[in-house]
Write a structure and sequence with these properties.
The structure is a homodimer of 417-residue chains.
Chain A: H1 3-11, E1 17-22, E2 40-41, E3 44-45, H2 46-55, E4 60-67, H3 72-81, E5 87-91, H4 96-108, E6 122-125, H5 135-148, E7 150-155, E8 160-164, E9 170-173, E10 179-189, H6 190-199, H7 202-207, H8 211-219, E11 224-227, H9 238-252, E12 255-259, H10 264-275, E13 282-286, H11 294-297, E14 302-308, H12 314-326, E15 334-342, H13 354-368, E16 372-380, H14 385-405, E17 414-416
Parallel strand pairs in A: 1-4, 1-6, 4-5, 7-11, 12-13, 12-14, 14-15, 15-16, 16-17
Antiparallel strand pairs in A: 2-3, 6-10, 7-10, 8-9
Bound molecules: magnesium ion (2 copies).
Chain lengths: 417, 417
């Protein structure tokens, strides 16, 4: 086969794959009372991001989430609220290995499970608290597991590993180059992982840490080790939640869609915005979100809606309807910046009446209930070009901050450029 | 000695200690172009936080920062801007060990260094990218180093460590309980670390990773290993910068000082704020920042300044003068929330004149240049008690967000409750 054929072959997974996601941990190390897999990132639990990472992969047929009995209802509620479709929830055991084994047994009960799902050829085991795993890496793990029986992610060691004496002194340090950290995901053929667990002792179930080790010990299967990206890291401490949130917010802040309503003044402003480097986002410009532009709605998380010389909220309301119809806000809060652009020089542009401000605030409060965050921004179109350039810069600076932060507390505020 | 004497003894370090901070790294792993020790957290480079962690410890006499030759000017600029007093900057070598050795040699040149500084008994070596090291742990390291010749921080392993075959398959996994990750800080008596480097080979200087290993190999000194807290972690990836920023922002958001100007309405509002759970901060109340209350200025990073029924900026301006005199804003941006509290029911409270808004914005823009972030918040004192309760909640929600985010982009905005 030619080079491009081989590349295609490497990219495809043409056998059934299911996922087991043990999520029974109690999260002691985060210093939080909520187990870390259930901690909220921008209004959604961490585990929902991890589930989403698998659901968007077309060749993965199902995800079994294993949770503590007392979390079954909470998990079922998450599945419904965030509209997960490939998931089944099963109760966990007293240890990690018992939980994983419960998940694998559930995969064997083909009946009563998801429609069109069959017993998997390969099972991928992952941590609920590693939400940023990507399809290209899952392909490598799934294919290596099918070929070798078992496969696992590794990373270089970040610290020197040392052996200590029983009195707490340095005995010796290991040569870093010879060792690796074992991470997740790992993959196994269904037969190998079943056999390994069937042959495991009670001691293994209670104290063992590595599935790879069980496959080696009980099936003689030496796992293929594949170096994964740094994004595979495990959310362990409270600070890791902040790091994860920052990654999610980065991903949501890559572009914005300016809706001009067809106005020339708004289009000119959008053009100036596209030239600004201060915004740090791609800027797409459309007249509205109907018909041909509706595909924009499905890719965007940020919208700038320009209203020229009129504090009229009808265009804002109709845009909100379009966004609601798209179902975009289920997984991430949307940001809508409503720009009130005035082209006359009368000073009243800054002071709005109480009734006007209240009408805007009411629309914003209502949209917030549906995970859509509206902020207002008053922008006078000055004639002086240097003054206008500064206004566009300031607009870009404020917009970047609003889009990046996605603050619920500041929803409905009418800001000034 | 009694138990309290022993406790006191454990807490004290009565011998000279200096620090070497190698900061020559290039930060390839962060995915950023700036080396990570120079990356900005809330407007200040990471390394300045690390220096601050040592400067605030009374028994540490000096910190030698070792940087790449091309960063000497940048580092000198940081020292001046952030008013570091115990620091000397020296150029690094081509490897980490050569840089550390340069730093130790600089400590030996007592002449021309800091006043009152002597040759140290113990040298602490730390990473510039571990900013959250605390005094209690430094005491343990310094005392153990003096007693045993060498001491180092360790942490439990976060992942299973595995050995791989040359073909990339699992060979065996290490028993986790027997091994530890070696971290920083480490401490050595001056004599031991000098002897170890004097006996080191060129190969050690070029490829060695662990000072502890050199002390063992060349001086027969087996380091005392001490388990450190998770906060010792090393800022390595871009996501770690977000985690570090979140820790800094948490520390800056623990309390706020309400300045009432002595008004009864403002005092009543401050009392309501103290009862709100939504604020997540301690609330201290003072009439002004003069005389007896000036000590508050030196501990607070957040201020709420209440102006009753008057859009008069003079109290704001005088508070800014007090803050500037305190020099508080050198290390962290201060937040000042200027509350315009209206007790009449006339609707004009929402619409301010252009001139008023501009005067406020100008004061805020000027203060921003001195690292003080002013936001305005209009708050009508409604008669209806349920309505007022909701207003206080909303105020608390917005204030928490402003204090937590410390946004430069939103400075000078006049928000509505
Ligand atoms: Mg990944
Ligand atoms: Mg610490």
């Amino acid at each position: 086969p030619g080079q491009s054929d081989r590349r295609l072959e490497e990219l495809s997974v043409d056998f059934p794959v299911s996922v087991v996601l043990p999520a029974g941990g109690t999260g002691e190390r985060t210093g939080l009372t909520t187990p870390k897999q259930f901690c909220s990132l921008s209004g959604r639990p961490l585990i929902s991001y991890t589930i989403q990472a698998f659901e968007r992969v077309s060749w993965i047929q199902s995800v079994v989430v294993v949770v503590a009995k007392e979390s079954m209802d909470l998990m079922a509620d998450f599945i419904q609220r965030f509209q997960h479709r490939k998931v089944r929830v099963v109760p966990g055991g007293t240890t990690r290995h018992r939980s994983i084994w419960n998940g694998i047994l559930a995969l064997g009960e083909v009946e009563g499970f998801l429609p069109n799902s069959v017993r998997p050829k390969v099972v991928i085991i992952h941590d609920a608290v590693r939400p940023f795993v990507e399809e290209d890496f899952l392909i490598k793990i799934a294919r290596a597991a099918k070929e070798h029986g078992a496969a696992g992610a590794i990373r270089p060691l970040v610290s020197t590993v040392i052996a200590t004496t029983s009195e707490g002194f340095l005995d010796h340090s290991l040569e870093r180059a010879k060792y690796r950290a074992s991470e997740m995901p790992q993959g196994f053929t269904y037969d190998i992982i079943c056999q390994a667990y069937q042959r495991s002792s009670e001691y293994d179930f209670d104290f063992g840490t590595e599935c790879l080790h069980l496959a080696l010990q009980y099936c003689g299967t030496s796992a293929k080790l594949i170096e994964g990206p740094p994004s595979l890291w495990k959310v362990t401490y409270k600070r890791d939640l902040a790091a994860a949130e920052s990654i999610v917010k980065d991903a949501l802040s890559k572009s914005t869609c300016v809706v001009t309503g067809g106005s020339a003044a708004a289009e000119s402003f959008a053009g100036d915005l596209q030239k600004t480097t201060e915004l740090n986002m791609e800027v797409h410009v459309v007249p509205d979100l109907n018909r041909d532009n509706s595909s924009k709605v499905l890719k965007e998380f940020n919208f700038i809606l320009v209203s020229v010389n009129s504090f009229d909220l009808s265009a804002l309301k109709s845009t909100l309807k379009d966004l609601e119809a798209s179902n975009q806000a289920v997984l991430h809060p949307l940001v809508v910046i409503w720009v009130y652009l005035t082209t006359s020089d009368e000073p009243s542009c800054i002071s709005r009446t109480t009734a006007e401000v209240k009408a805007f605030t009411d629309v914003a409060s209502e949209a917030k209930l549906r995970n859509t965050l509206i902020y207002g921004l008053q922008l006078p179109r000055t004639q002086d070009s240097e003054c206008w350039r500064r206004s566009v810069l300031k607009f870009a600076e404020i917009t970047s901050a609003l889009v990046r932060e996605r603050s619920f507390a500041l929803v409905g505020q009418l800001l000034q450029v």
